[in-house]
Amino acid sequence: MSTQLIVTIALLAGAVFSLIECWRLRGLRRVLGLLASLAAPLLFYLLLYPPPQRTDTVLAVLTAGTTPAQIAQLPPGARRVALPGAAVEAGIEQVPDLATALRRHPDVAALHVTGLGLGAADRDAARGWPLRFDATEPARGFAELQLPAAIRAGHGFAIQGRVRGAAGLQVALQQPGAAELVQAAPDAQGRFRFDSLARRAGTVDYELRLLGADGSVLDRLAVPVRVEAGAALRLMLLSGGPDPDLKYLQRWALDAGHSVSARTLLSRGIAQQRGAAGLDAAALAQTDLVIVDERAWSQLDKNVRTRLLAAVDEGLGLLLRLGGPLPPALAAELRATGLDLRNVAMDTRLQLPGAAESQALQRLPLQAAPGPLQVLAAAADGKPLGVARNRGLGRIGAWWLQGSSALVTSGQAGLHDVLWAQLADALARPRAQAAALLPEAAWRGERSLLCSGEASLAVRAPDAGMTPLLPRRADAQTYCAGFWPRLSGWHELQAGDTRQPFYVRAAEDAPGLHQTQLQAATRVLAGGGQPNAAAGAAGARWPWFLAWLLPATLLWWLQRRPAADA
Question: Where do transmembrane segments lie in this chain (predicted)?
Fold first, then answer.
C-alpha cells in the first residue's frame, strides 16, 4: 500500500469524524462546521500532493553519433543531456541513462532525441512520451540481416540483407569449409540474397564481406546460424520396383535422421523390405508420411487404398510418385481425392531453379486443373512438378518429377536434399512446434529478453561462466527474464533440461547493423505517446497552505467554543 493511499484513507477518516462532531452544532455554526470539515481534508491533501504545473519544456537527449549541427538546431530553451557515447560540449549535462535524466528533470513535457538512437533500457524509459527523433546517417556497410526464425537440418535457407552505399560494390559470402567466396551484386536498393543448406544440427558461422571495386574488404559481418535438429519423421516408402530416385530418397531420409520403413517389389511374390512397412490402421496411425509410386499403388487392393485415404483424413501425409502418362482409371481415382491432373502436350525437359542443366531431369507431360492446390515444387519456367491439397486433418499430393537422383550424381546433393525436405515439410503429419525462446538480435552490454516455458533459467557465457536469471511470469505458460550480456559470441540458454544456443554481437563488430537497428527501434517511439502525468514540476505548496489554514482555524474555533454556546 502506497504512502499516498494511506494518507488519503486517514484524511477521509478524519473528515468523517469531523462531520459527526460538527453535526452536533446548531444553526449557522453547524453549516460552517460541515463545510469546513469537507474543505479542510481536501486542501490538506493538495498541500501534501500539489498538482504538477504543466510545462512545454523539451528535454534534448543526445545519443552516440550526435553532430554539432544537430546540437545547433535544438529547440531554444531545451534542456540538454548526453547519454554515454555522445560527444559532450561545455554546458551539456552527462547522465548514465534516460531514466536518470527524467528523474532529474521532472518538469519536461517532451523528448527530442538526436544521433543514432536509444538503447533497449532507454527506450523503455521513453515509452509513452511525445518524442521527436533527429537521426544521424549510419555508417556505410551492412545495414540489415535477415535469417529464418527456425532453420532445420537438411533444409535450405536464405541469407538476405541490405547494404548502405552499395553502388558499384559486391557482397561475398564465406561459407564454412568452402575455399571460395560466393559473390552477388546488390540491387538498386542495396539488397542481396544467398541460398545455402543446413546440413546438420548445431551452430555454424558464416561471414559476409562487402568488397570494393578493387576487391578490398570494406566491411565484414558475422552471420551466426543456429540449426535445429527438427522432429524425426516416420516415413514409409512403397515401390513397385527398384529405381535410382527411390535409392537416393531413402538415403536422404536416413541421413536426415528420419525413421524409414520400406517395401520394394523385386518380382512376383518377392519383395525387399526394411522395417515393418505394415499397412494396417495401427501402423498407419504411427506413420507421418507414406510415399508410394504408381506401380505399388496399382498393386494395392481396394481395401488398403481406402484404409490409406482414411488415415489421411486422420492426419497422415500421402504422396503418389507418378511414373508415366496418367491412365484414365488412375486419373479418375485422383480426381475423386481432389487432385485433378490431365495429360497435356508439353516439353518434358526442365531445369530446376539454382541447378545446373541436366538431361536426366525430366517431367511428365501433366497439368493440374485450377483449384485449391499447393505447388510442391516448380521448374525454372514456373510450371509445377507436384501438387498437394488438404484432406481431412492430413494432406495428399502427386509428384511427377523424374530423375531427381541425377542431382546427387552430378554433385548437387544439397539441392536434392532441400527438394525432398520441402516435400516432407508440406505433407507430413502436423507436429506441434515449440515456441521460440531466444531474441532475434542480442548485443553486448544491452538488455535482451529471454523467455521459456520453464521457471528455471540461466545463461552460460562463452567463458563458461553461469548467470542465473530471475524470470517473471509473462502469461500462463511463459516465463521471461532480462539479460545483459558482458561478452560477445555464442551463449547458451539453459531452461530446465533444455539447452538453446544464441549469439551476442558486439556493436563495434557490426556498426552499420547496430546503428540501423537502434534507429529503427527509436523511430517506432517517435511521434507517439502523450505527455506523462508526471511531466511537470510539483506545484507550489504555500497557496494550498493558506487555503487550508482558513477551514482548519474555523474548525478549531468551533471546537473551542463552550458547549453551552454551541
Answer: 6-24, 31-49
